[in-house]
Amino acid sequence: MSARLVHRYIPNTAPGVRERMLAEIGVASVDEIYEEIPAALRFAGRLDLQAEPRSEADVARELTSILAKNRSTDELLSFLGAGCWPHYAPALVAEVMGRSEFLTAYGGIEVNDHGRFLAVFEYQSMMGDLLEMDVVAAAVYDGTTASGDAIHMASRITGRKELVLPRLMDPDRLSALLNYNGPWFDTVFVDFDPATGQMDLADLAAKVSDRTAAVFLENPTYLGTIETQVQEISRLAHAAGALLIANVNPASLGVLAPPGQYDADIACGDGQPLGLPMSCGGARLGVLACKNEVRFVHTLPMTMVGILPTTVPGERAYTWHALFDRIFYGEREAARSFSGTSSFLNAIGAGVYMALLGPSGMAELGRSNMQKAAYAAARIGALKGVKAPVFAGPHFNEFVVDFAGTGKSAAQVNAALLERGILSGKDVSGEFPALGAASLFCITENHTQSEIDRLVDAIAQVTR
Amino acid sequence: MTHIDEQAAEADRYLEYQAIDTGYRAVRWHEKTLYEQSRPGSTNAILPPVEPGIVALVGDVAAALPAAARRARPPEMPELSEPEILRHYIRCSQMTYGYDSGNSMGLGTCTMKYSPRINEQLAASPKVKALHPLQPEETIQGILEIMYGMRNWLCELGGMDEVTFQPRGGGHGAFTDACMIRAYHHARGDDHRDEIITCAVSHPCNPATASAAGFKVISLYPDEITGELGIDALKAAISDRTAGIMMTAPYDTGVFDSQIAEYARLVHEAGGVVSLDQANFNGVMTRMRAGDLGADMVHFNLHKTFSTPHGSYGPGAGAVAVKKAFRDFLPVPVVEFDGTKYRLNSDLPHTIGKVGTFMGMVPNVVKAYAWVLSMGADGLREASEWAVINNNYLIKKLLEVRGVEISWPNRRKLQEARFSLAKLHDETGVSTTDFNYRLADFGVQTYFESHVPRIVDEPVTPEPTESISKEDVDQFVAAFHHISAEAYSNAEIVKTAPHRSIVHREIHDYENLTQVPFTWRVWKRTHPDG
User: Fold this and answer.
1) Is the ipTM value over 0.90, yes or no?
2) Separation in Å, CA of B488 to nearest CA in chain A
3) What CATH number corresponds to the domain at position B193?
4) Can you give the pTM of this predicted structure?
5) How near does any CA of chain A get to the CA of B489, in Å?
């Protein structure tokens, strides 16, 4: 008989342990326990997989060699955004997120895990300050599922069955929302003003009614425009007895009106811009917030960390312990939700980011994104045959460029730019054909003037 | 009182109650919130400056916004220097019990296992971190190769044909299943099929996600003797409205339902779809395959079985694997390989589209792939065997503790088991919650009691995975002996616990949740004196 496997990740594989433990259990072999699985269902074949364990060095070499086939945005100059934005990630964010205790904790309670609850409470608090909202969920999977949760809340709160969505929306996001909210709502779309990219208020007024559960506002919009009519949209929604859900980019809130300022009932968004890496779209943080009223807080389908008193007078417990009764852990099918394990580590990271930047840094972040994007749009728009920005209104950090006047498609421009080491904007010509040979470019605070100038020069060359 | 006074007073209290001493004391900083430490005007120059050439061309575009679109007042966030912020979070981390901190085997259904650091380092490479999800395929061949590689592992382990990594957790995976079941019946003109059958001892995400997808839910309860659902109960639940069943194997009770393949057959016969929740896969890797049980689709948790870190409660990663017949319903894109190049295919005729953002939690796929290569199929088998041996050893030892019983004692359990302290509670008045608080005084992680509904009174649900040593199990059991003895001799010690932990037990004296501060702005408003 060959020697048993001793594996570095399994302490009990050291010789002799198995025999002692099986003897204690009173079985000759573990197979006796597996007899719980009926013989016909026990897998007896040989899996078509690498059988032997591999050493750490071997795995590191193999993965490094595979990953080397990627060309990252450290190597290519990237202007891709569209829901995953290339912001600067401060060193402290990764440092704190890499702390082994935060990285590997999970379902403990406050008596052992007080620190992670305090850190998450502070995330909720700083996010609440940014949003000007009183109640913030600990974290949802991502901005899209947070939007879906917000919409579900509106259905439960109002008992109404119609949802008003902006037509100018990322089709992928819309698809996810319809998967989640489709069975519960009839969806009505509001047009956008083709000149500004903002909501068409006349169309909104026509579509909001006493059937409307919520008006869903995106600010900035998918195509980067800033919605300046937030007060009017809020008034129209509320006049019909509907709720206003505001989907916002937290990175914009140092300068843009926060949802609380225009009386939004529920706010949502994605916290990835707050110092979280792009990670191929992996690192996300669903932001979900609402007013501090029973009808909102008691329908919020996610855990929150709150402060409770303890048996010692004056002591604060930061805890999620009391708060499970509204979510699926407490209500099962009545909860109608799907957020379990979500994104606490990312919430802690975003908290570090907000703490580092503070109110002045958040304002600087917003200003800088707007200025650099405006600079890029102005310079690209000055090129022959290129229209930028396509919409006339103000933009945050993304804008649409139309290459139709150059005779080139967005795909052709993108391919030519890639040859020059540049990742161009997202080709949105298929999603919004009316916008022409359209690409969505993203410029953040982390692009330098010389990088933007390099992009402008490259576009000039490839569209000539 | 100052913090120093508080600490001294507490030390005095400890001296009065020698009996509570366990030889352990948690790290407990008297750490104020960032808000209470804030020093207005502190700033950190983190962001790159805006070049004069940019300002010259465009000016301050933010200031030019109409007033209604602009922020009216600065957010009241804390202001501190970088080293102070780091110190605060270090202290918070020290007051957090990570897997790496000690013995976390109490957290059953969580599959707490070691997350290898090499995998963290690989996923932190710029070749992962600095990728944009919309990059052209030819620039992310490495990531696609890894996703495809992990797909192949999961297909083989699950007896399935295709995989999506888009779901961001187990609940999200179950939701993906529910959406595909809905789309499948819709494509066949069977929209009247609006009922999903689940089990009351499966994870609550199964009924909740079925409900979120618009289904009515029928929950079956395990038989008191066998712990199984039973053919008759299932037959009674099946009708022409059955859309499918969301099953679990083994259950959270550790019982493997021996009739599961027959359930699948009956549901198929009635025109329904079979989805298997394999959050509890850790004890059965290479021993059984979802596809062989008759499942059409299955979801795995990469953050449980496949070692990616739990991240204080995420980000995790779900993976859903399906049989060929359901491939066309998967969320898009799926990764394909033509023998030379990897590509993303979004052109599936019945796709449910998207369930979340982009391609899911890609870095966790990298970590999980590194883990399966480290283990090999032989290592996975070994890991499952150890999850089962450790659990059965725990059962043997824990049942020697006075007042501890186990649910379904006539069944052998696989990866975990649900114990009960009902006897101890009856005899001493000490509840499982009291017991759990006292456990924190011993320097081990608290245990998971149970999901709802609580079929077992005063439940205890630990899960000693393969990462747990015999010594860890012995330590856990020794703490149980100690606390049980206290319960029978001096129950007050247990009922007033914890005594050696970071914080004492919280009091729930609110009428509704609006009275609980969830943000500092609310705390400040309701506690003007701090």
Assistant:
1) yes
2) 23
3) 3.40.640.10
4) 0.97
5) 23
Of B44, B98, B353, the CB nearest to A361: B44
Domains plus CATH for chain A? 77-86+359-462 (3.90.1150.10), 91-353 (3.40.640.10)
* Contact state of A111 with B42 under an 8 Å Cβ cutoff: no
Radius of gyration (C-alpha) of chain B in whole angstroms: 26
**Distance separating alpha carbons of residues B381 and A44, to the nearest angstrom:** 12
Boundaries of domain holding B341 = 160-373
Closest Cβ opposite residue A80 in set B85, B132, B383: B132
DSSP state for residue A22 in the 8-state scheme: H
Cβ proximity of A285 and A142 under 8 Å? yes
- Å from A323 to nearest chain B CA? 8
Q: Round to whole Å and give the CA distance between A258 and A126.
A: 13
pLDDT of A1 over the 50 cut = no
pLDDT 10s digits, A392-409: 999 999 999 999 999 999
Q: Which amino acid is at B400?
A: E
Residue A9 has pLDDT above 80, yes or no: yes
Q: Tens digits of per-residue pLDDT, A370-394?
A: 999 999 999 999 999 999 999 999 9
Q: How many Å apart are CA A35 and CA A231, to the nearest integer? A: 66
A314-338 per-position pLDDT tens digit: 999 999 865 556 666 677 777 767 7
Q: Is B50 on the interface with A (CB under 8 A)?
A: yes
Residue B344 is assigned to a structural domain of this protein: yes
Tokens 């009545």 found at: A334
- Which residue of chain B comes nearest to A118, CA vs CA? B92
pLDDT in tens, B200-244: 888 888 898 999 999 999 999 999 999 999 999 999 999 999 999
How many residues are recorded in chain B? 530
Decide if A63 and B385 are in contact by the 8 Å CB cutoff.
Answer: no
Of residues A179 and B16, more confidence is placed in A179
Tell me which residue in A82, A134, A277 faces B522 most closely, judged by beta carbons.
A134
Indicate the length of chain A as a whole number: 464
What does the alpha-carbon distance between residue A194 and residue A390 come to, in Å, rounded to a whole number? 9
Q: Is B345 helix (H, G, I), strand (E, B) or coil?
A: strand
- Collapsed DSSP state (helix, strand, coil) of residue A166: strand
- Please tell me if residue B230 touches chain A, with a CB cutoff of 8 Å: no
Greatest Cα pair distance, chain B, in angstroms, is 80
